């Protein structure tokens, strides 16, 4: 084979673009090193409101450990998970109970206290740094998802804008990444892009040319302080242009997709359509979450994106979890348990439900074969939250799970206990480096966490 | 005049009436403040002994920070002897009157907003007005909202690839659906295209700009239109620092006109007006007045406001301003009554609930009714599902209809199911949330934050220990650090206990306990049920007017308000009282206010925001 195959192809008959899974032969020859290994993916999952702390920590240290009650759903995945213990973000040990904790989860910094003006997370989040490094190789550089809409207004209790409670991913220190909250819309964004015919695509490209020119002309007439907003606009134009160019380049070398992936994609498309059409099911949190996880897994398997983040809820989420057996309350309420036995029990059930979602996602990734391995082998999945025990908003010893093989760079099956108050940034640094973001340090890191 | 101001400020700042004289404040000052901030001990470098009222008047930042610490309860600190709630209010009123009196020496600034993109709603309305098609904008991500709680706040309107992409797709869809033969009639394509571009860009076109657009017709009308609707000239709202017209001396208000601020151009004024009142682009009438430089004439400006309010497009004030001010968006997002417990709460009912609030607000503006009818009215507007929910006769034929009410249960937003639902938990009502919502949204006096170990109330109405919510809250109030706030919050919320979590009237709580809707406000007024609550709020109409004025102003200016806006808000609120709270008079006053017609140059604005940051 003299010409490398495309990873992505257009199925004009079906009227939809399908991203192909990684195949060795598709890797461009110039990227020789990459051609040897399938791509690495990163997913971050955020659980708001902390976890029931006394039933989280595994028994035993290192490779000899027993999973706790809360982590029990991970038993089948024992060999593929690392449970990091004793990490924290020192800079989140101030401010308020929730917003500072979430704001620093992927940035290891401290958000600036504001009611709306001067929004600042202090850093770009690690997923976005990764997207900048590897995003150009996929149709979408990254994908940001959440199961809850943006919370608005100001939390006057603590003088923070509620926006901070809604964003895990930061494109830049001052710009949160907007999230998609509807599984079907996420699916369409990933997989329905190529449906436009050639003429429509050409039209969009020519429009972008005009728009880019307009933006730079407008920008040149503005004062320095006002230019940032036009910079943002130009960056958006540029990023869409890059993506269209990517699609063109790969569409030109169209190949047919493996039938099984195509079948799974169209099956998920129909499930989502049916779900959206049924008003009784549309509000079902458990089902919506599963569908979102399905979409994420398919996005990784098809190499449509390699970086994704999902928030199970906004911080301070008052979601009603009465759909779980034995739970009659809301998430935030259960988290302030005051050591009441019944509340603790409910808190644990809610926490465990989130762990079950992680297990489900791992199962989805594993179901996609990739050469001799599966997609989970080539993924890094970070799961957890910025609060340990929600009752006192404790930021020490964060509840964390790291899953996936990291392309052979992560050694699963261990309870990795660090010295107390080891920077969370050490884990960030370890993940960033694996994704090709070469940094000596990240935020307050003191070294890369030994996860491999 | 200063006396009126001080009185207004006092009633705005404190729930309890503050009739006590300055002497009281002086003696409280020496007993509660001077031990730490006096001549002997001057913690944080503050010696109040050395500062008389005149000295304080010339230190507005200091007064503001004292007020802030008093209001949020952080002064006196917890290790000092506590200050009774009434005494705290006396001190707050004292410092507030000093703050109010400094107005004459202060230099108000018109303020400044960053260039900002349109909101999702504005984009939809603008496409409707330019192309005559109303397209769904669901694909575009929802807008967050800024400090004042409005989506149009320039500070939080970021532009991202996802947004731009969905804008372009949505505009392309709108163009596909538009009737191009009418929009661009054969033989007059160029001329019609330029007219659309002028409206979309809200200004006249430069000759080369126009020539370029006409050339683009060679690629087909859809492409030419899309190049207008995807352009930042349409999507971004940018105001220029160099005013197109010379800064005119302000004839309206000699007190507030600041020499550093300049009047915005007539086209920018037309744009601010149309985005304020219609959430959309200006129409031809506004454009022509702006082109003649006539819009800035006060009489013309007022006449235009009246014309625009009569126009159906002013419905956006209800669907955008009122919906966001009153938090209605939360009904579509995070607020979820338990579906098992409340099967009656369907999407249809939720829509009908929202519709009642926006319909009533729209009627109040359209018919120039009193803003106080938001607090209490003997009428409301319901659709069939809501009439059934309320147990009112179902409307015949019409989509919605106005009903005359016999009792005071409904009528006014506090008796509206939308408000009662969004201030409840999934499984029970929340007197705390309801009370806090009233303090924050209606009176503009949010309670300070709870202490870290405040605890959380149970999710259900009755817990295993058999305590009712009221009993549990009473326990909570026994704690000194909780009492001062819950004394303000709880009675307001308990007055609404006659309504269940989805706003139905009830006489029994869970486990057949009877509803108890009684409470005593901090000033001693006793309230029993919604009628008493309405009376109590009507008695605080000044605070309410101040709150509405500041919300309308923030919405109109697309920014959060700062202390530099305090005087304008105060004038708007007292103006509202003089016009019997006429809704239209308030909107006109905002549209003709100094900050609405002016803009601060960059350096002044920077100084202002630095001041804010240092507060």
Helix-strand blueprint:
The complex is a heterodimer of chains A (452) and B (615).
Chain A: E1 8-11, E2 16-19, H1 32-36, E3 41-46, E4 81-88, H2 99-103, H3 126-134, E5 143-146, E6 154-155, E7 160-161, E8 170-172, E9 175-176, H4 183-191, H5 198-220, H6 224-251, H7 259-277, H8 279-282, H9 285-301, E10 307-311, H10 331-335, H11 341-366, E11 369-370, E12 373-374, E13 379-384, E14 400-403, E15 414-423, H12 424-434
Parallel strand pairs in A: 3-10, 3-13, 4-15, 5-10
Antiparallel strand pairs in A: 1-2, 4-14, 6-7, 8-9, 11-12, 13-14
Helix pairs in contact in A: 4-7, 4-9, 5-6, 7-9, 9-11
Chain B: H1 2-13, H2 22-33, H3 53-57, H4 60-71, H5 85-101, E1 116-117, H6 120-131, H7 161-177, H8 180-183, H9 189-201, H10 207-216, H11 221-229, H12 232-235, E2 236-237, E3 262-263, H13 266-277, H14 284-291, H15 298-310, H16 315-325, H17 329-332, H18 347-366, E4 379-383, H19 384-390, E5 400-404, H20 417-422, H21 431-442, H22 469-477, H23 480-494, E6 518-520, E7 526-528, H24 529-539, H25 541-557, H26 566-578, H27 583-591, H28 594-597, E8 598-599, H29 602-614
Antiparallel strand pairs in B: 1-2, 3-8, 4-5, 6-7
């Amino acid at each position: 084979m003299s010409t490398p195959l495309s990873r992505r192809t257009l199925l004009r008959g079906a009227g939809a673009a399908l991203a192909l899974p990684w195949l060795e032969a598709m890797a461009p020859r110039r990227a020789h090193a990459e051609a040897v290994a399938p791509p690495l993916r990163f997913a971050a999952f955020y659980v708001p409101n902390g976890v029931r702390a006394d039933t989280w920590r595994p028994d035993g240290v290192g490779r000899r450990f027993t999973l706790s009650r809360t982590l029990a759903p991970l038993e089948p995945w024992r060999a593929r998970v690392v449970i990091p213990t004793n990490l924290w973000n020192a800079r989140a040990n101030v401010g308020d109970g929730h917003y500072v904790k979430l704001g620093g989860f992927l940035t290891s910094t401290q958000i600036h206290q504001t009611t709306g003006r001067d929004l600042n997370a202090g850093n770009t989040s690690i997923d976005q740094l990764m997207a900048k490094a590897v995003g150009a190789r996929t149709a979408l550089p990254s994908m940001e998802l959440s199961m809850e809409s943006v919370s608005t207004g100001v939390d006057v209790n603590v003088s923070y804008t509620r926006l901070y409670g809604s964003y895990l991913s930061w494109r830049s220190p001052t710009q949160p990444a907007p999230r998609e909250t509807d599984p079907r819309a996420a699916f369409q964004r990933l997989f329905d892009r190529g449906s436009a015919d050639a003429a429509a695509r050409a039209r969009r490209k020519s429009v972008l040319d005009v728009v880019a020119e307009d933006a730079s002309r407008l920008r040149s007439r503005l004062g320095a302080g006002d230019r940032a907003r036009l910079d943002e606009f130009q960056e958006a134009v540029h990023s869409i242009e890059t993506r269209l160019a990517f699609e063109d380049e790969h569409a030109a070398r169209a190949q047919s997709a493996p039938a099984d992936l195509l079948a799974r994609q169209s099956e998920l498309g129909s499930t989502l359509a049916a779900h959206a059409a049924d008003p009784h099911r549309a509000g079902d949190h458990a089902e919506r979450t599963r569908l979102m996880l399905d979409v994420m897994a398919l996005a990784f398997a098809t190499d449509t994106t390699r970086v994704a983040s999902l928030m199970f809820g906004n911080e301070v989420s008052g979601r009603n979890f009465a759909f779980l057996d034995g739970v009659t309350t809301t998430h935030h309420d259960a988290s302030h348990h005051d050591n009441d036995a019944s509340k603790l029990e409910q808190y644990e059930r809610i926490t465990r439900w989130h762990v079950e979602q992680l297990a489900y996602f791992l199962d989805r990734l594993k179901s996609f074969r990739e050469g001799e391995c599966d997609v989970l082998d080539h993924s890094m999945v970070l799961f957890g939250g910025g609060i340990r025990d929600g009752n006192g908003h404790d930021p020490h010893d964060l509840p964390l799970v790291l899953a996936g093989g990291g392309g052979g760079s992560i050694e699963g099956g261990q309870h990795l206990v660090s010295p107390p108050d080891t920077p969370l940034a050490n884990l960030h640094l370890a993940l960033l480096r694996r994704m090709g973001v070469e940094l000596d340090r990240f935020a307050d890191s003191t070294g890369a966490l030994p996860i491999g | 005049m200063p006396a009126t101001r001080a009185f207004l400020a006092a009633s705005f700042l404190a729930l309890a009436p503050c009739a006590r004289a300055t002497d009281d404040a002086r003696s409280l000052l020496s007993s509660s403040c001077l031990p730490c901030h006096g001549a002997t001990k001057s913690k944080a470098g503050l010696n109040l002994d050395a500062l008389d009222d005149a000295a304080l008047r010339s230190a507005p930042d200091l007064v503001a920070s004292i007020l802030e610490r008093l209001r949020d309860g952080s002064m006196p600190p917890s290790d000092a002897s506590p200050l009774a709630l009434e005494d705290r209010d006396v001190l707050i009123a004292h410092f507030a009157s000093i703050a109010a009196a400094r107005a004459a020496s202060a230099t108000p600034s018109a303020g400044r907003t960053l260039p900002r993109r349109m909101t999702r709603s504005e984009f939809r309305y603008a496409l409707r007005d330019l192309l005559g098609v109303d397209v769904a904008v669901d694909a575009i991500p929802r807008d967050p909202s800024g400090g004042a709680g409005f989506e149009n706040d320039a500070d939080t309107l970021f532009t991202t690839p996802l947004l731009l992409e969905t804008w372009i797709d949505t505009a392309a869809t709108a163009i596909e659906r538009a009737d191009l033969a009418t929009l661009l009639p054969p033989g007059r394509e160029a001329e019609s295209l330029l007219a659309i571009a002028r409206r979309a860009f809200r200004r006249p076109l430069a000759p080369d700009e126009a020539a370029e657009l006409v050339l683009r017709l060679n690629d087909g009308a859809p492409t030419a239109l899309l190049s207008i609707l995807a352009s930042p000239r349409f999507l971004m709202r940018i105001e220029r620092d160099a005013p197109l017209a010379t800064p005119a001396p302000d004839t309206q208000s000699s007190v507030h006109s600041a020499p550093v601020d300049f009047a915005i151009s007539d086209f920018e004024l037309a744009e601010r007006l149309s985005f304020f009142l219609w959430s959309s682009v200006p129409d031809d009438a506004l454009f022509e007045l702006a082109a003649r430089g006539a819009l800035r004439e006060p009489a013309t400006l007022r006449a235009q406001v009246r014309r625009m309010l009569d126009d159906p497009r002013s419905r956006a004030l209800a669907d955008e301003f009122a919906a966001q001010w009153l938090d209605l968006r939360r009904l579509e997002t995070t607020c979820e009554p338990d579906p098992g417990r409340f099967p009656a709460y369907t999407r249809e009912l939720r829509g009908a609930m929202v519709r009642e609030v926006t319909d009533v607000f729209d009627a109040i503006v359209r018919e120039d009714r009193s803003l106080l009818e938001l607090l209490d009215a003997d009428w409301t507007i319901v659709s069939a599902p809501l009439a059934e929910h309320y147990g009112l006769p179902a409307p015949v034929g019409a989509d919605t209809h106005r009903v005359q009410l016999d009792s005071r249960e409904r009528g006014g937003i506090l008796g509206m199911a939308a408000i009662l639902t969004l201030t409840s938990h999934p499984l029970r009502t929340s007197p705390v949330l309801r009370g806090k919502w009233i303090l924050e949204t209606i009176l503009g006096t949010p309670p300070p934050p709870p202490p870290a170990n405040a605890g959380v109330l149970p999710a259900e109405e009755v817990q295993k220990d058999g305590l009712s919510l009221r009993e549990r809250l009473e326990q909570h109030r026994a704690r000194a650090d909780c009492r001062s706030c819950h004394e303000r919050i709880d009675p307001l919320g308990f007055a609404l206990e006659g309504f269940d979590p989805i706003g139905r009237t009830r006489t029994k709580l869970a486990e057949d306990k009877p509803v108890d809707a009684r409470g005593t406000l901090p000033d001693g007024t006793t309230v029993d049920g919604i009628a008493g609550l309405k009376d109590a709020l009507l008695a605080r109409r000044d605070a309410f007017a101040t709150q509405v004025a500041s919300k309308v102003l923030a919405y109109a200016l697309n920014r959060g308000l700062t202390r530099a806006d305090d005087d304008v808000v105060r004038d708007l609120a007292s103006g509202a009282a003089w016009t019997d709270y006429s809704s239209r008079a308030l909107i006109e006053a905002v549209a003709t206010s100094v900050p609405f017609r002016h803009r601060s140059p960059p350096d002044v604005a920077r100084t202002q925001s630095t001041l804010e940051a240092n507060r």
